[in-house]
Amino acid sequence: MTIKHIFSVAALAGLLTACGAGNNEPADMENAENGENEVNQSADEAANNDDHENEANQENEADTADREDVKVIAHRGASGHAPESTTHAIDKAIEMDADWIELDIQITADGHLVAFHDDEISRTTDGEGEIGDHTLDELKELDQGSWFNEEYPDRADESFEGAEILTLEEVFEMYGEDVNYYIETKSTYLNEGMEEPMVQMIEDFGYEENVIIQSFHQDSLQEIAAMNNEITLVQLLWWEVDEETGEMTEWLDIVPAPKDMTDADFEAIADYADGVGPHLTYYDGTEVIDEAFVQTLRDHDLMVHVYTVNEEDEMERLIDWGVTGLFTDFPDRLQDVLDNR
After folding, report:
1. Which of 81, 88, 112, 117 is an active site residue?
2. Domain map (residue ranges) of the chain
3. pTM score, two decimals?
4. Which CATH number fits domain 70-339: 3.20.20.190, 3.40.1830.10, 1.20.1540.10, 3.10.450.50?
5. What pLDDT does residue 144 have?
6. Is the pLDDT of residue 41 over 80?
7. Where in the sequence is the signal peptide annotated (predicted)?
8. Where would I find the H helices in the chain?
9. pLDDT-based confidence at 59, cuts 50/70/90?
């Protein structure tokens, strides 16, 4: 009931009383008071309903904000479900509505950019040696899928056997502009000069809006920023923890420990990058970042994409802290967490 209606009913009650029902005044006054009480009660109920509706709308808006603001980044594709960096993992990530497909890029002996994480090829293929010591033709002969079936028999699939190592160009051609690519310039001390052909390929495909490039190597990102300032860049960070003292040291000395970072440190990153990719925990379980650190990054207008988070309780906590994206091997888990908030 609106305020206008309330005033109208109250005015009518007053008019009837003023016109006088004569000898029935006490009864009329009681009826009028009862009417006013009913009106007030209705108004209170309407106000309560409005409050509940506003609260529900605010909750829905918060849920929508979570879904829109927290990006699902499929770590090497849906690598918890299929062999990493293969079409199988990428396909599953797309099926699971991942916002970004993360791939590490390295250079072959004959200059091709390929999607492969390790410097050594023995963990995920039937080959040996460093990836940069092999030509693309040699790498294409390798089986990059059978290892997954052996390592994870509960998730094994015969179709994974014989999966090929992919070039970045093949990925772009295969999945097109409807997919977003989160690319890492990997081990730049081994993959020297990879930035220029990578940027050139992104420009040739017109994928500046479809690509984020991340790296632990600050000079790599700065070089890319100088080549093309339309490409979004993320500075990866990794803090090692001294087991005896608990002291934290960023492994490439990009920044101090999180608690010791100053505005100047954040601003230095913001000069060339659009975001930061920190990890939550060290190998021994020590947490290296906290909510205050995340909020400070946000205050400096930097995206916060934490890697690699596979447990739902950690996903929930990091989302509550205000992160803007999470790397995960299981994009379906993160989707469930976001959908249920």
Report:
1. 117
2. 3-65, 70-339
3. 0.82
4. 3.20.20.190
5. 98
6. no
7. 1-20
8. 3-19, 25-69, 87-95, 136-140, 146-151, 168-175, 195-205, 218-227, 263-270, 291-299, 312-321, 331-339
9. low
